[in-house]
Amino acid sequence: MYITELEIDNFKSFGRKTKIPFFEGFTVISGPNGSGKSNIIDSILFCLALSSARGLRAEKLTDLLNVNTGKNTAEVAITFSDDTKIRRRIKKTAHGYYSYNYLNDRLCKQGEIVEFLAKYGIKAEGYNVVMQGDVTRITEMTDNERRKIIDEIAGVSEFDKKKDQALGE
Ligand code: ATP
Ligand code: MG
User: Domains in the chain, please, with CATH?
Assistant: First the structure.
């Protein structure tokens, strides 16, 4: 399964509704410094609930709204190759914000999105997204720490956890 389309509306530097197509295989996004490349990755992490505001380089969730449009909502939608659509919207209010998650256009709890994606091995603690700086960190790790990452990616660590749990019972 891969992302076929990303739609960003009023999120960070994307003040205008922007559709970005993705194709199977390897895609490169290039552009000058500050042109919004990392914001595209941030929008994916936001939509799939894979990161906190801090991980999206924002102090609070409402900082993710574009600062120039004056609009009080931001929205990101992701379509996968099997036509699954995940959408997240935040709405700024006088008291804070509301966050809405949709799975195939049905309003749902964020937990449902997290559970759904976990079935495909897409998890916050997984290494689906390797952020700027992560590569250096990985090269500087001990062999044991690096092994843990490989176990996590291969899905072995989940069985280790279950095994430990079973042995403890
Ligand atoms: P680099 O090559 O340096 O990594 P980049 O292409 O990854 O750059 P980003 O970090 O994605 O660039 O984008 C940074 C730009 O996004 C900055 O110009 C910043 O002002 C703008 N930006 C961030 N948040 C917002 C926001 N809430 N509203 C409007 N613009 C924003
Ligand atoms: Mg960047």
Answer: 3-122 (3.40.50.300), 133-169 (no CATH)
ipTM > 0.90 for the complex:
yes
CA-to-CA dists, residue 137 to 42, 140, 160, angstroms: 20, 5, 24
| pLDDT tens digits for range 110-157 | 999 999 999 888 888 777 888 777 888 889 999 999 998 888 888 788
For residue 37, say whether it is annotated as part of any ligand binding site: yes
Q: How many angstroms separate the CA atoms of 17 and 10, rounded?
A: 7
Is 155 marked as binding a ligand? no
Ligand 1 centroid–CA 109 distance in Å is: 29
**Ligand 1 neighbourhood includes 62 CB (under 6 angstroms):** no
How many C-beta atoms surround the C-beta of residue 143 within 10 A? 6
Q: What residue spans of the chain are helical by DSSP H?
A: 37-47, 110-118, 134-139, 143-154, 156-168
- The CA-based angle 7-9-10, given to 5 degrees, is 155
> Is 133 labelled as part of a ligand binding site?
no
CA of 131 to the centre of ligand 2 (A): 9
Q: Is the CB of 34 under 6 A from ligand 1?
A: yes
